[in-house]
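Check my protein:
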Amino acid sequence: MGFLKEFKDFAMRGNLVDLAVGFVMGAAFGKVTNAFINGVVMPFVGLIQGKDLSDWKLVLKPAETGADGKEIAEVAVQYGTFISVTIEFIIVAFVMFLVVKAMNAAKKKEAEAPAPPPAPSNEEKLLAEIRDLLKK
């Protein structure tokens, strides 16, 4: 029973739950970013050549029909897809940088708030009374 209790304590600890929430949010953010890149950014980038960025490729060997009549697929380097994914990565990395920067700024503001000075101890109060009496 101790093992199960220890696992429950581990699983319910704040860090693990936060990690799970972050993972789910990251997956959802990835879908939003992917839709933004493919639906908004890439059409403008595609205007450069007049075709969709995912169609950009370097054909090494064109498609052909073999001697037995079977179609042999082309061999191509899909550099358009690579550019698209690279742009998506840069956007996600930049947004994560902004989120971390905002969180660090919020933590810094919390840390900058000075703690109130501790109340004087009984000895300090007694010594202050003696000092005040000696001044008279």
User: Anything to note?
Assistant: Residues 2-115 form a domain with the Non-ribosomal Peptide Synthetase Peptidyl Carrier Protein; Chain A fold (CATH 1.10.1200.120). The chain has one domain: 2-115.
